[in-house]
Amino acid sequence: MTENKHTELIRAAGGLVWRVNKNQPEILVIHRSRYNDWALPKGKLKDGEHWDAAALREVAEETGYRAEIVSFADSLFYYVSEQPKLVIFWNMRIKKEIPESERVTDSPDEGDRVKWLTLDKALEKITYEDEKELIRGATPMPQNSASFSSSFAKDPLVEKMGWVKPSWLSDSGKRLRVSLEVYYREMKQLEFRFLHSSETINRESLELVTKQFEDLARFLEKSSEALKTNNLELGWEAFNAAQRQETQIYHEIGQSKSAMQNFARDRFEGRALSIFTEGNHKLRSWRKEKLYSLLEQKDQVKANPRLSEVLDAQQTLSDYFSNGYRRLGILRLQVTYLEIIAGAAILGWIALLLLFKPNLDIESGNLFSPFLTISSLLFGALGACISGILRLEKRSTGQKIPEQLEHLVYTVARPLVGAVSALAVVTFVLVGILDVGSQTPGLYLAAAFIAGFSERLLEFGAGKFDEDKSDKGE
Fold first, then answer.
1. pLDDT tens-digit series, residues 115-154
2. Where does residue 183 fall: left (phi above 0), alpha (psi -120 to 50 degrees), or beta otherwise?
3. What's the mean pLDDT when you consider all of the chain?
4. Which of 216, 270, 388, 398 has the fewest beta carbons under 10 Å from its own?
């Protein structure tokens, strides 16, 4: 039985043709007298024709320019008289203009006029709203690809966050920036591969997967916007949401009868195995029990898990990491307060010395000796730094990232804690609270240095904090 024509997919391809004129990017648009509209150059594929070849042919026929493809741009999906139509666009640049005598056209739909327009003018001129949105999300492609500072700028998402300098970001921010760059490209390649096989998929699945790719792109867009404002918690949440959307895409394609069916099934099952393996090593308490209830069968990942089970397990793993970074943020804020208070105390003590300028007698260990005070602070900070180095030497590099970041916070606080502790110990010796026998400047500095090791109280407090978390099942 012949399939109803209204269910057959119309396959079309076109180009966003760019040039630079007076340092301004311009895009090529066409006028079609048959429809009296302004549009991007595009047209239907011929039998057996590849998408990219059709795009180059249509651009040549409708604009009179021979172009070359620079990168994949985007796609549009809509209905024409109840018939689904998919149009794939590439970013292009001009190779040469075709002489009038050599131009070939076999359709009355070809453009009768072409215009180079700036982006603002093109948005005013273009008739169709979906093509306007395509242009708004596009990245201008200069004639000379060497003018790009990096391949970064070729992707609209990454280009929008290109001003975020790596030096401005924390380690977590840098990881998010790199993850976004790589993941965005991977998803574009996946979408491109899917679109190439879309003629073998039914209309319902095609619509759903197309919508899922759009949602995934929006999550990545939100993540990049959060990165620009240094809202890393939101950035990672949106990034994780995009990965869950990817899981749904694999499941949907795997359920359809398409050329990518086996590939998508393998990726979906691989995603389930990855979540189970990582969760089995990193989760504990109720989260691990939940993971096992969702994906475990005879101490390994179950065969053919449901989509809801995989998504729920993926969300549980994401929540674990998110909560870890939230606790780290609270801890960092608390330590920052302590550092500000300790720094203010040191500055206040130094100001007291400068204002009152008491009689100095280093041999008698005068309490108000600037030399003794500053030396005590320096030796205490030095002791704290050496203690920290010794601790780092013994620490395993196999620690989880949140734990490493947690200890990084302690490392920053160590010198201040050691300096304040040293100043307190020397003061106790000077006023007689601590009796250490004969008092000399060397004794004071040695006491300050040893007192610097008291910064290990930080890790004692951290150990108690971890015990509390374990008791509560966090």
1. 999 988 999 999 999 999 888 877 665 444 333 222 223 3
2. alpha
3. 76
4. 398
